[in-house]
User: Fold this.
Amino acid sequence: DQQVKQNSPSLSVQEGRISILNCDYTNSMFDYFLWYKKYPAEGPTFLISISSIKDKNEDGRFTVFLNKSAKHLSLHIVPSQPGDSAVYFCAATGTALIFGKGTTLSVSS
Amino acid sequence: KAGVTQTPRYLIKTRGQQVTLSCSPISGHRSVSWYQQTPGQGLQFLFEYFSETQRNKGNFPGRFSGRQFSNSRSEMNVSTLELGDSALYLCASSLADRGQNIQYFGAGTRLSVL
Assistant:
């Protein structure tokens, strides 16, 4: 029973365009959400987070939106760059940090 | 500040053997969590240690165990290895007790069971 779902295994975007990665969750008790980026042969790297009391958090090219009523969050990357090509994991904090299965983003130049 | 260090980076074992993986957290971090990553399964939570006590445990069999030392370093042990245990094992450390749980990951230990 997956509590955090990333329904798109992959996403392809052209350089300079917007990348939108989506994440759904089922547990309304989650109070903190995080996005991680992972390159091959490396551990995940923290990207950006959002508290459940907010609906938006921005850090440079990265913005995370939270829609609590829909139990949905999204990560926007604008503009996308080839170096953004990686696997992106959505995670939520309950008693432990619960991860989605990841979305592989490919940004072509 | 040094990041999370995991050793060894790669391991090859055979079925039935046991293995111990090591994790040194970021200095000052008292929480250490372990995850298993397999293709298509994302990161699955194994357990979390805080101040030498197991605080949380995922849905893995008892063959998977861990411990944390007084200096916050942690070890994970897998006994009676099975082929399905082949995976990337990731360790993460965090500063916060609860709530804003930003975890910082090591590069992982790639375990291959033959």
User: Anything to note?
Assistant: Residues 29 and 95 of chain B are 5 Å apart (CA to CA). Chain B has a mean pLDDT of 92. The interface with chain A takes residues 4, 6, 33, 35, 40-45, 48, 56, 58, 90, 92, 99-108 of chain B (CB under 8 Å). DSSP finds no helices and eleven strands in chain B.
